[in-house]
Amino acid sequence: MTAVPSAPISDLETAARAEAPLTLDTAPPRTLDFRALFALWANLGVSLIGFTSAATVLGKQGHELGFTAAVTAIVAGTAIGTAMLAVAALVGARTGAPAMAVLRGLFGTRLSYVPTVLNILQCVGWGVYELTVIAWGAQTVAGTEGWRWLFVLLAGVLTTVLTIWPLGAIAVLRKYVAVAVGVAMVYFTVQFARQGFPDPGAGNWDGFLSATDAVIAVSISFVPLAADYTRHARTSASAFWGTFSGYTVAQVWCYVLGVVALLQSGGDPDKILDSFTGVAAGWAFLLVLVLRESDQSFANVYSTAMSIHNLWPKVDRRVLTGGIGVLVTVLALQIKEFTESYYAFLGLIGSVFVPLFAVLAVDYFLGAGRRGWNLTQDAPARWVMLLPWALGFAVYQFLAPTAVAGWWTDLWAKAQEAVHFTPQAWSSASLFSFLVAALATGAVATVERRRA
User: Fold this and answer.
1) Is the pTM of this model over 0.85?
2) Cα separation of 242 and 240, whole Å?
3) Quick check: 84 and 226 in contact, CB under 8 A?
4) pLDDT given at position 423
5) Do 50 and 189 touch, CB atoms closer than 8 A?
6) How far apart are CA 382 and CA 54, in angstroms?
7) How far apart are the C-alpha atoms of 418 and 408, rounded to whole Å?
8) What's the whole-number mean pLDDT along residues 188-198?
9) Bridge-partner residues for 7, per DSSP?
10) What is the DSSP string of 357-376?
11) CB half-sphere exposure, 80, CA atoms < 13 A
């Protein structure tokens, strides 16, 4: 396989000093072991957004899932989504290439620019959103509605600094932050359990699959970022299992705690953090989680730079991360709230990556990847691979049209009417999109093998 070579690490002292390469064509040091990757993904699996996103699992007030059904959806959705994430992490470890550069092998260099641009838009959007959430959490801890600009600015500076020394940041996450976050999560779990919570949807499983789909989508959102970090993994096994176990444990814990906090706050997502500050010394432990949220913005800013490297591989990544950090901070200072259309836009981009991952995984393990992907700057275009990706995207939108605009949802509504189809509780957009894209890629791989 043609891949970015790996820089061998002779001893622990050398590993501690190693940092991520400044350009795309420089060999990545292999410094991250299982513990480092477990800590990284465990920290990324716990987030303030994760707590508030529990509302997408529980459902609307008056139609809530039962607590047992909600927890089952969280566990099932996380396991499915994180398995996909772990496979993407495995590919990154084997190739030694960042996530978007890996797509050179799937589509060819020029065609890989299409998902690269989409990922840049997604990462910048989520980076802005993360800084906004950090400011909101800081205001909650401080008990004020003011000083937002200061909190955004401080979060932006911290985020940018972390991206300058990414492997050093991951080392700090492993040694200190993961422990502090674990203590805070245990504390809130104990306090919430002591207080108890209502279960207005007791016994209700209606909407279980849509809730599972929402959880899968959250895990999938990290798929276009995974290889940016696991390219530094010492072994493929540590990349897969560190990612899978770390993110699974953390996201399940985060979402279940979020469901409990949401039920205690009367089902209002805007008041969910009040459940955290409402317990004894809750502000102090919430502050830990607010500070830790910067690893989410770090991941988005750093992966934006890694995506840009696929377009301009010779630019110093420190220049890229510094510039992107400033851009995200400036945007977060200007954007104080997000409209429903913006959420829908991010959701539309997210729906791109579910079938894209299916195409990548099948072609890597069963198709051209078995013979060796070409990841160089002159990798030839593979136009045929756009077909299964487009089919998967169409299935996703057919089953669950993203409300980015009236004409868009009308288009898919007419398509449903044309075939007399009405979305059902079992019609999971993520799973069916993945399945169709995977089968179509398998068919393409079979044809290519016969021709070869």
Assistant:
1) yes
2) 6
3) no
4) 76
5) no
6) 40
7) 16
8) 91
9) 29
10) HHHHHHHHHHSHHHH----S
11) 23
